[in-house]
Give the backbone structure.
Amino acid sequence: MTTEKIPYKIYLSEDEIPKQWYNVRADMKVKPAPLLNPGTLQPLKAEELAPIFCEELIAQELDNDTAYIDIPEEIQEYYKTYRPSPTMRAYHLEKALGTPAKIYYKFEGNNTSGSHKLNSALAQAYYAKKQGLKGVTTETGAGQWGTALSMACAYFDLDCKVYMVKVSYEQKPFRREVMRTYGASVTPSPSMETEVGRKILADHPGTTGSLGCAISEAVEVATKNEGYRYVLGSVLNQVLLHQSIIGLEAKAALDKYNITPDIIIGCAGGGSNLGGLISPFMGEKLRGEKNYRIIAVEPASCPSFTRGKFAYDFCDTGMICPLAKMYTLGSGFIPSPNHAGGLRFHGMSTILSQLYHDGYMEATSVEQTAVFEAAEMFARTEGILPAPESSHAIRAAIDEALKCKETGEEKTILFGLTGTGYFDMVAYEKFHNGDMSDYIPTDEDLQVGFNGIPKFPGNEF
Ligand SMILES: *Cc1c(COP(=O)(O)O)cnc(C)c1O
């Protein structure tokens, strides 16, 4: 054991940035269920995915066995411009809480996109370029993913077409301009540019759009334009793989000081940051080498893990994407307009769903005003202005630290601080003005979503 004081920021050197991603599926005894073709209900083959996704990314998506995958040099070169990200000791927060717990957080907001999403955007843009494609299409809701992808496409000289949910496009003009600065075209969705957009506008004049609708438009544009593919910023196995860089760095930093976390906490929207943060720790747990408490935190308004069903379901509202076996609220579930845009997805990563189902991790849900109370406390003590999504993890970390205060236990807590909240000041304003509500869906509300989960033999839930 070292007696040295643990620094506020544990930085790795540039040379210590991991050169391989870690694929936690390799250590899972029960593998995540395969994606199914919604027409045939058979596992999707690589060739069926090829018109939509890039080849190399499909290979990563389907690879349940290779534990370590080399990070191509070109991606490493860009990672070096904003990584390693710091692993921070929250001394000031600990003091304010009066807890004997030791709190660490891995901060992923130190790049212009303001979140961890750049880690996967770079990988996806790189493989698209390597395949000789002209460009990629995607959807964005709150805008973090679109921003990260725009940056990655600028770097690898690819065209980037972003379909942005119309309400966000109008309410977040600054996000839009950041994307355009990096050269992306940003179209409010639904648009008149696509068949599906025109149909939705004809059926629902004046609609402000949804993520599901934006996905449908982005997929249509990718499949109808030569040299384009569709990319997605969360949920998929490949995205968790790329995000494993978060956990690998955090573990390397903690290992330097012989620190072993007792509890690891992350917010969960589609599961990519949490999956990435926990991957190397979960690997040890799966191999029986170590034990950790791992906690997923989700909004009480969109409780996929804590109140959802474990079943095959569509990933999009338009029901054009493959079926994934996951904890889901049903693809038709529309969460109340809470302010953590990145946590409003109805489903969850199939990897995390299987791990949760098999008892390797826990989940909890938190209410919005409690989240913003935690965000404000964190900003005032640690100085970083957290994203509302990230603040779900802060809330749970604070709650665990307060339990330690009661019991006197000196537990070590690690949580993922996924990003900054500069574009979320309308939400902070609502909180400060006392205008924020804590909507929790009733069982009846949830049943409406569950009714839309496809029914077929073997998909009982
Ligand atoms: C997108 C986003 C999330 C949620 O996505 P996951 O795939 O669950 O990680 C969390 N925090 C921030 C800042 C985000 O942008």
Q: What stands out?
A: The chain has two domains: 9-16+83-114+243-450, 20-26+50-70+117-230. Residues 132 and 227 are 8 Å apart (CA to CA). The first strand starts at residue 9 and ends at 10.
